[in-house]
Amino acid sequence: MARAVWSRLGRILWLSCLLPWAPAGVAAEFLVGDLVVTQNTSLPWPSSYLTKTVLKVSFLLHDPSNFLKTAVFLYSWDFGDGTQMVTEDSVVYYNYSIIGTFTVKLKVVAEWEEVKPDATKGVMQKTGDFSASLKLQETLRGIQVLGPTLIQTFQKMTVTLNFLGSPPLTVCWRLKPECLPLEEGECHPVSVASTAYNLTHTFRDPGDYCFSIRAENVISKTHQYHRIQVWPSRIQPAVFAFPCATLITVMLAFIMYMTLRNATQQKDMVENPEPPSGVRCCCQMCCGPFLLETPSEYLEIVRENHGLLPPLYKSVKTYTV
């Protein structure tokens, strides 16, 4: 019994020494088979797997004629993250702890005894190299929202989203009065290539709101909500109203000034028949001093234009006896 164990162990060590010099490639004279990777979690995306979840890596030999049924196999595994192992079993289980793209490489050596034509026994050998590419992802375990819960209208708000897991491919968000999940097509997705994202918004109307956020990557999706209360601003409306009120006040004052000035000028012209020297008009043209020769002529013109005073000369009736 001990001799058989040592004989088997010696053969394994000998095959292990031969593995580095085994020829690469798969041809008719080499082993033919497939390297299959499976995981308990079924994902709809090809070659995508979860980290921190056990992977089953299997080698399926293609030998329909059972030619190699008496052969001894040795498997050398390289998982692409620095881990290597040699086994006699065609199935191994491995757990990746980090995200990334890895290539699993397998070198297979098959050895058996064969009787030669001269009735002597010889050791025959076949080898084969196989590989499979794996993309390891982390599920989105949640979204951490950092931002205010109370804000005023017309104030710019910034909310930071931290994704717990692999970077999502898309992020979608929308403001709602209630915290409800987002339906498909309800918001416009944004591409994100990191584990953090900042969104900004300015509220114009007060009230209670809820940020409904959805993030997803190639293997999972998650939702998160963030309530916020918006109060009316005490400063911003006054800032907008002050220029308008000032402009309206100036216009009204100008109109009242012009109206009173015109009325005053008309009254002075009626009550003061003597024309002042150097009178000037303020209605977009200038009048020179009156060129009338006598005050009576000026008074007559005023009476005729305004019709407010009786004529200067009364008609005299003549009676003939």
From TrEMBL:
Coiled coil: none annotated. The chain crosses the membrane at residues 238-260. Keywords: Glycoprotein, Golgi apparatus, Membrane, Signal, Transmembrane, Transmembrane helix. Its main location: Golgi. It is a single-pass type I membrane protein. Pfam families: PKAT_KLD (PF20433), PKD (PF00801). This is Transmembrane protein 130.
